[in-house]
């Protein structure tokens, strides 16, 4: 899979631009605040219908414009696919081959992307919410059922938390309704946990190989899923459903007192272990960065296994955060394997030697010019 063409109208600082890309490596060069990250963001938005930088659609629109359009042509094994996303102050519309999609969840997954930015190093040392977001965004791309269950879970969770707040202040209420909401939440939560365990097991396998290669077999990487309902490994969906229902029933008074749902996948976490030690707590900065890189690169192979297509890789100024050894491993891993978009203020001679025939774009104040690669 690769993005062959991209058209932007009134997106960030791009008023009107049409671009054609290489199916291999595309380098976006420019100083800060010129628009190279905006271009990467547009590709991400085209795939995911949302930005990785802001939750406000208004920020994506060119100043004083009411709508923005992001269009792309995707080359897949089964042929070309036209994607179009229309952003406005009222919301967004998504089209596949000119047909508007009834739900955005039907659109997500047509084009798979992996974004790796400097802040992704916090995947290892950041808060649990960072890792949950990573899991939900990446697994949601490759499994529409996961995305559906996640959407339903969030809706019921919001309703349940609202009702727990009401019970907290009223001291009395309809516990039958709480039971209904608990049952629904347990059903969607069980599906989410089961699919997380499945995908994490596969992701771990690929990440282990990459970590071994980078460290010359000195480090063994494993994942540990930490659930709010104790050990869940090896449990079926039905068993997870029963356990969640049990936790809700046994802790209803505590949850009413707190006014919030204290158990479920929205409270879970993933631990990364290097040689059996928690790398978040005991790992060096180098080990943490190697682990983050291994996990992100492992996504490439996981998406290939699950969808039959390699995803598109977006590297936002990430080379500057990696030392020479990790840069070399990253660039050798992606060369001739996945279409890559790489942003950087400048391209060093070392990097030029590692990248075979890149297509280089120079970006200045929202204008994009093709430049000779050599």
Automatic annotation (TrEMBL):
Residues 2-344 form the RecF/RecN/SMC N-terminal domain. SUPFAM superfamilies: P-loop containing nucleoside triphosphate hydrolases. GO terms for biological process: DNA replication; DNA synthesis involved in DNA repair; double-strand break repair; SOS response. It comes from the Bacteria. Its main location: cytoplasm. GO terms for cellular component: cytoplasm. Signal peptide: none annotated. The keyword DNA repair applies. ATP binds at residues 30-37. PANTHER family: DNA REPLICATION AND REPAIR PROTEIN RECF. The RecF protein is involved in DNA metabolism; it is required for DNA replication and normal SOS inducibility. RecF binds preferentially to single-stranded, linear DNA. It also seems to bind ATP. Belongs to the RecF family. This is DNA replication and repair protein RecF. It comes from Liquorilactobacillus aquaticus DSM 21051. The gene is recF.
